[in-house]
């Protein structure tokens, strides 16, 4: 816990300094007044950090993964997205059979242990899980269990709201990072250990998602900082200010505003 807190405060300090430098450079560019630039930069930095903290605290589900684990979670998701449903089914069966009696059915798994019975469905696809997909999965599990766990790459917000509103059926939807944290990491079994993932070819969409993953934020910060500092020593400052500002903002956004879906269900499978 202590290393996690140190990392959090270190990131907060670095992002605050970068934000201050960003605002200071722009205010200094227009006003030429050093004192006004410092005060304006400090005030603008506090406002931005405050807004970021409010938005961040609205997330119900905090995924406790470090940068290496997040990268590994994304790699697992990419491998599963470009693997046949039968192979994905086989992979999760390997994970669950350590603690449950598992039965393949309707593209998913029936998992049983003593008085516990649930239907687990891996729905990995380049498409975001939509309400119609959820309805189909529910139809698959109607005669198996009224408790459903769905593992996906991403889910549409309407789908998440629909899952919460359905009565008599308890539906838990895990995105790829939640799946890694709550299921895969518990057994530490990766897809390449069970199934053939050599044919994985990420799409442009997934490459973009990988490029803008939170673990890469420090790269954007470093590049942005270099450009902002360079603006003090070159004739055409505006181009360096714009480029550096964009890079720093991208780094801060991908670090503190990742696309994590809310999930109110606290049941863990492993």
Task: Give the helices and strands, then pairings.
Elements: H1 2-31, H2 34-57, H3 67-81, H4 85-96, E1 101-105, E2 108-113, E3 116-123, H5 131-141, E4 147-152, H6 157-165, E5 170-174, H7 176-187, H8 204-211, H9 217-230, H10 237-256
Parallel strand pairs: 3-4, 4-5
Antiparallel strand pairs: 1-2, 2-3
Helix pairs in contact: 1-2, 1-10, 3-7, 9-10
Structure description:
By secondary structure, the chain is of the alpha/beta class. Helix content is 57%, strand content 11%. The chain has ten helices and five strands, in the order ααααβββαβαβαααα. A five-stranded mixed beta sheet has the order 1-2-3-4-5, with helices on both faces. Strand 2 (108-113) and strand 3 form a beta hairpin. The longest helix has 30 residues, at 2-31. The chain starts with a helix and ends in a 14-residue tail after the last helix. Residues 259-267 have low confidence and may be disordered.
List keywords for this structure.
single chain; 270 residues; alpha/beta; Trna Endonuclease, Chain: A, domain 1; 2 domains
In short:
By secondary structure, the chain is α/β, with parallel strands linked by helices.
